[in-house]
Design brief:
Number of helices: 14
Largest sheet: 4 strands, antiparallel
Distance between the termini: 35 Å
Strand content: 5-15%
Number of strands: 7
Radius of gyration: 24 Å
Strand order of the largest sheet: 4-3-6-5
Number of domains: 2
Helix content: 40-55%
CATH architecture of the largest domain: Orthogonal Bundle
Shape: elongated
Order of helices and strands: HHEEHHHHHHEHHEHEEHHEH
CATH topology of the largest domain: Triger factor/SurA peptide-binding fold
Length: 299
């Protein structure tokens, strides 16, 4: 389920049926949440729980709230074609497990598209705030202190240390043969320090290499599976960092963007901004704390 888990907002769980039943005792048009230009009623809530039966009640209401806000703010910037492109990418990555993944999450392809759209709208909101507030000179200098420009390298990864050592020995004793094999296996990778797919230990070792140099065997433990992968890096081109920060301004801005997108506290602060802007008010006492993870307050 690793692909779908990246997209579905909130934790997957059963809806709080007792709370839902209590809401159903109210008038269908009773407002659970109000905000500028809109309200979420008991009927809205009930219909959404039927679409997302395995989402907790709090997540259903959060998604209804932010969906309205972000559609107003960024709806024109996320087209149906954009959603379809992301949908097809996720489906391709899931491959044979696609149907079972959806079933496990209690989703259909239609409802999954809705979660994708909400996620993409939220991404627009977060990125807009990053562009507006985070590309300061101070932040650029901080990013520059740890940034390394793009390098071009062959990276061999193996499940056994012996195989990795064999690759290392070949690279150091017969570079032409090693490079020929590496090309045949499509092992050439271009990456800078903002890359999130190359393990940090591999990047650190790679950036120290000069052109034509080979790293030692680098063991990296997978934090999810516990398995160790052994890497060897052959450096094709390492341009070095130099001293001109402005030369890499766009790359530094991208590094800041990636860092902030993965900063939960920052994302929460952005969500709080929109909750305040739209004067979001929870009317139903049972849900009074559903936005506390964004606002930092509880009742």
């Amino acid at each position: 389920m690793k692909h779908l888990k990246k997209i579905v907002l909130g934790f997957v769980a059963l809806v709080a049926l007792t709370v839902l039943a209590a809401c159903q005792q109210s008038s269908p048009n009773t407002a659970i949440i109000t905000m500028k230009g809109h309200q979420i009623t008991v009927t809205d809530f009930y219909n959404s729980t039927k679409t997302f039966p395995q989402f907790p009640a709090t997540t259903v209401l959060q998604n209804l709230t932010f969906s309205f806000i972000f559609e107003k703010e960024y709806g024109k910037q996320v087209t149906d074609q954009d959603v379809t492109k992301r949908f097809n990418t996720m489906k391709s990555q899931a491959a044979d497990s696609w149907s079972s993944d959806l079933q496990q999450q209690g989703l259909t392809e239609t409802s999954y598209r809705q979660t994708l759209r909400i996620q993409m709208l939220q991404q627009k909101a977060v990125d807009a705030n990053i562009t507006k507030t985070q590309f300061t000179e101070a932040n650029l200098k901080t990013a520059w202190s740890t940034y390394h420009p793009e390098v071009d390298a062959y990276i061999v990864g193996s499940s056994t240390e012996a195989d990795a050592k064999s690759a290392h020995d070949l690279a150091t004793s017969n570079a032409d043969q090693f490079k020929s094999q590496a090309k045949d296996k499509n092992l050439e990778v271009k990456f800078d320090s903002s890359n999130t797919s190359i393990p940090a230990d591999v990047q650190t070792a790679a950036f120290k290499l000069q052109n034509g140099q080979v790293s030692d065997v680098i063991p990296v433990q997978n934090s999810q599976t516990g398995a160790t992968v052994y890497y060897v890096v052959y450096m094709i081109t390492n341009p070095g960092k130099g001293t001109d920060m402005n030369k890499y301004k766009s790359q530094l801005e991208n590094a800041i963007k990636i860092q902030k997108e993965n900063d939960q506290a920052f994302v929460a602060s952005v969500m709080k901004t929109y909750l305040t802007k739209y004067n979001v008010t929870v009317k139903e006492q049972a849900f009074s704390n559903i936005f506390s993870n964004y606002t930092g307050t509880t009742n």
